[in-house]
Every structure is written in C-alpha cells, then in structure tokens.
Amino acid sequence: MEFNFDFDVTPRPAVDPNAPRYATVPGNVADLGNGECVFRPRGEDVPHVMTHQVLGALDQCREFRTADEHVEAIRRATPGAPVEGIRRVFNSLVERGLIVRADAFVEQLGAAANSPQAPIGGLYVRACDRPAQLQRLLDSLREDMARHGRPLRVTVVDDSRDAGAASAQADAVAAFAAATRTEARLVGDAAWRRVQARLTEALPEHAAAIDRLIGRGSATAPRTGPGRGWNLALLLGAGERILFGDDDFVLPLKLHPDHRAGVDLAMGESTAARFYTDLDSALQAGRDPDFDALQWHLDLCGAPLAAVFDPASRIAPTPAQWRRLAPSRLTRLEAGARIAATMNGHRGDSGSVSSDWMFMIDADSARDLFRDRNRYLSLIERGRVWMGVAGAAASHATRFTPFAYDLSQLPAFVAPEERGEDATFGALTRILDPNAWILGLPTSIGHVRESSRNFTKPGSSPVARNFNYFLVDFLARFEDDLFAHTPQQRLVAAAARLEDLAAASDRDLLRMLGEYLQATHSGHVQRLQQLVAEIGANAPAYWIADLQAVVKANAKAVLSDDVPRLAGWPKDLDAAGSAARMRDDLTRFASLMRAWPAIWTAARSLDLSRSLR
Q1: Pairing state of beta strands 154-158 and 184-187?
Q2: DSSP per-residue letters across 17-45
Q3: What CA–CA distances, in Å, run from 92 to 48, 54, 107, 247?
Q4: Is 50 helix (H, G, I), strand (E, B) or coil?
Q5: Residue 318: its pLDDT value, please?
C-alpha cells in the first residue's frame, strides 16, 4: 500500500509593516461564457474583460495586504501557477485600477469633501420637570468648560408641565449664564409656541405636520413624547453642528474601561456592557481622556469619513484593522461618505425598566454579569452599567441617542411619540443619505435617574415592539432599493412605501403584522440560544434559569393566536381596530416624511433665534 503526500513547504513571505497595502475595489461581475467574465468597478462605466482565473485572483485580494501577501494568497489558490506570472497579473490589476493602494483609497474616499464643516451651535439639552437633574448637568458642564477653557453655548429645550419646575429650570439656566459668562438660552413654553407659530406661518400647508413633530398640545391636553424636543433642537440648530443630550446626563465624558485603539469600519464592533452594583462605581468607571472629548465629537461630526484615517483623529485604523478592511464588502464606503452624527455610550443608571436586555449582550459582557452569584442577584434587580463600544466603530444604526449632529444638510427627524425614537433617527438617516455614517466613539456620558427603581423580573413579558421599532425594521427592508438622487426625493419615495402598506386590506395588514411579531419573538429566542451556545458549559445555573424564563416568555408569544398588536396600542383592540391603528400610524408617519424637508429648510432660512428672546 502506498501513500502520497504533497506538502506545500514554500515559506510564506515576511510581512513588511511599512510596505504599501492593496485591496480589490468594489464592483459587479457578469459572466460572458467560455471562461470569461466582465468586471465593472462600482461607479465606473468602463468594463474590464478577464478570465475567471483572473477574477479568482481579484477575489483573493479583497482585504488590504502587502503585494507579497496577495501574490502568495493567489499562488496557494492556484497550485502550479508560476510566481512571476502571478506577480505580473497582480501588477496589471493595480495598473487597471482594479486593485487600489491604501493611500489612494483614502484619497478617493475624501475626494468629494469640498465643503467646510458647519459652525458649532453648542449643546442642546432636552429637559422636563427635573430641575435637580438639570442643575447637576449644568454644574458638570461648567466644570468641564473650566477644565478645557472652552466656552459652549447652551440651549435648554424645556418641555416641563409643572410651573414650579419650569421656573426653577429657568433660574438654573440664568445662573449658569451668569457664572460662565456664556450664552445660555431657555426654550420654555412661550418660546416653544412662538417657534411653532413662525414655522406654521411660513408653511401653512404643513401646519398639521409641524404640530405633530414639535407641538406641545394644550394645558388640558398636553402632548407627551421624547421626540418632540429632539425635533425642535434639530430645527433650531439647522445649519450648525450641535451636541444634544438629556437633563439626567452628567459630564465628564470618559473613555471605555477596556478602551481599544483604532476604528472598526466593518460594522463588526459590538456594544459592550460592564456592570456595577452601585451608582458611584459606574459613574467613576473608565479612563479620563487627556484631551477635550466634547470637542473630539464636534471635530469628527460633519467631517468626511476619510478623516478617521488621519492620525489626528485619534482613531486611525490599527495595522490589524487595515488587514480586515475589505472595500468590496462595504457597499456604502464611497467617495463623499461623511460622518452625519457621533454617539456616546452611557454609564450609571440603565435607561430600561426591564432586565431582559441583560440577556441580549455579547458573551464577554454576559460573563461579567454572572461571574458572582450574589453580585448577579443584585445586578438583575437594579444594576448599574457602562454601555458602549470599547473602540471607535462606524455604523448606520443608532442604538442610543446620538451626541453630535451635522445639521449642514437635511438631517433625519425622529418619531415624536413613544420610546425607540433614537432608532428612527438612524433608519431615516440611511434613507436620506446612503453615504451617511454614524460614528460611535469609545466615550460615555454619566446617566443618573431622578429616582431609583428595580427592574421587572426576567421573563415577565416577551420583547416589546412598538410602532417605532416596527418602522425601523420595515424601512430596512427596502432602503437599498431606493434610487432617487436627492434626500428629499428619497424620503418621499420611502413615504410612498409606507402608504402602499397602509393601502393593504385588513387581512393582509394583520397577516403582515402577525408575521413580523412572530419573527421578532422567534429571533429573540434564537439569539438567546446562540448566546448560551457561545458561553458553553460554564454558564451558571442561576443565569440559565433566568434566561430560560425570557426564552419561555418569547416562545409563548410565538405560539399566540391573539390579535396582533404593537406595544403601546390599547390591549382591547380587535382585529379591525388593530388594522385601523396600523393604517393610521403608517399614514401619519408618511405625512411627516413628506413634510419634513420643507419644514427643516424653512427653519434654516428663518431666524428662529428671535423667537427665543
């Protein structure tokens, strides 16, 4: 009996860290038959005819590696091919522009960025009936301004309903202005209504949409919803770069406890959680940056995405990140790509009322959660957290409320009502501009609730999806199928998709909604099971028991034959009522999408600051 072994003992080339890196450009392929195909680089009209073997060579060069590494990868993929012949093919592909050098790639990425960044409009604070929280934030901001010698205009958008709270907050803003000698503006009830009146006067045809987006309602029928103050800030800051946050935030910004260098452009960076049993420990966690972190957010916001490759950005990709970067797999990494907003993490109190989110985290975060039983039992009732990315990460989604906004171009608005409004900002940003990116920075802002409260017990209810979350998921279905050129046209085209769904029959609407809720709950179960599998046999029984309770609650929802309803809708809606509510919500939101461009453009042209005096 004979055994033949064929070992490839060719030594791999040593990697020169200073050698240029190259990667295949993105493009489309069409087969021509007879072993040939045509490759057309994205955004170009010139086709390149090649053999399938040459196309295979391109496929081996997707990530940024040195020429020697690419040649070796092609050689291993095509046994018997001479090295010199492979090198000639590689050089030819470089000359044809089908493989690009890293420095040329960065230059191309920033080529369309001709406009200077917008002026800084300061910090906008969304406040509501919490004068003690606002005072804490303003005190921390005053310390931060003194530390960095940087003035910052403050605009407090006050949605208070209690006259005493509104008065106390007005006093706090006035005292802050006097102490810091900087401009501090309060947008109280009267000023808020003046802004709405000026916009309505300019755009009477959009009066209903303006009222829904920012209207406060009447004294007897006040409007609630966190999105209205956010939308007002987007209108008041039109044409500027702004920071935005809530009154229960507290400075300074801190770097992640496990801060990592570089930036992940492949959208593979997951949000990490670190848990603490007391508020002070959570607020003190992390590293104090030796630079002005607020200015860092503002400097990157509105910049071309190419700016992250500059060492001055403090997040230039590491050599390892360069080696993972494949332009052909990042369809939105194009010339003209810009950073539309930046995001913070948060540390301190969680913004959730349920503990179920603690089971929807990565494996490392879960291990930190359950590493000690007594600590776990305390955390699952009322844990504090450091939540955010450990290293900078570019994305198209907004898991949290963005911190810095580029309002030099038409921005997204947010759903005026219910929770989940932060996710609608990211979804609509993708609709408006497919080349707009959200940059998560490895910083966090403190979060201190007005009063402490315990989380609900794990598995108390299945994962809830209100209309805002449904909207985000529905928009994601077709965002890549929109071909309209301008942001306004793209928003109108997306609104037409919502109106198309609203025009469905009751039966089809309910069937679609039922399938959506079923897929949501089933997907939740699958992710929980994947987390258990990833952690393995070392998962403690007490954590497994709580996780199983969450699984059971969602599995029960999958099997439910009740009328499909979204969270926030009346629980006694029958089938006809549920279909009517869905149709109404879709139609109303579509009307906001159609009206928003005109409203924001009017806000930019009007001197709304006069309404604040």
Answers
A1: parallel
A2: TTS-EEEEPPEEEEEEETTEEEEEETT--
A3: 12, 10, 21, 59
A4: strand
A5: 95
